[in-house]
Prior knowledge:
The chain is α+β, with helices and mostly antiparallel strands and 106 residues long. 19% of the residues lie in helices and 21% in strands. Strands 1-2 form a two-stranded antiparallel sheet. A two-stranded antiparallel sheet has the order 3-4. It has a two-stranded antiparallel sheet with strand order 5-6. The chain is globular and about 35 Å long. Keywords: Disulfide bond, Lectin. It comes from Electrophorus electricus (Electric eel).
Amino acid sequence: xxxxxxxxxxxxxxxxxxxxxxxxxxxxxxxxxxxxxxxxxxxxxxxxxxxxxxxxxxxxxxxxxxxxxxxxxxxxxxxxxxxxxxxxxxxxxxxxxxxxxxxxxx
Length: 106
């Protein structure tokens, strides 16, 4: 969606709509659910977007959410869903089982 109006339960930021699911699913199941809803797991492209994501996640007691970053194709070669390599200036705070759970965009 390209306006400041998002479907109920979604949040708007910088021309995009974001949905924060509280379902506990695998990365693949989460990505599939996003695709079914017409989107994809988030590809974080700026520190402003990362700040928005940190501020916006619901207080459901969940600390971590899936993002559109994976090393499933080549071990330790992190790529966003669009194929872009993770920037050298980004830092993975914790990664295991092909799943980054927190990072910083600088």
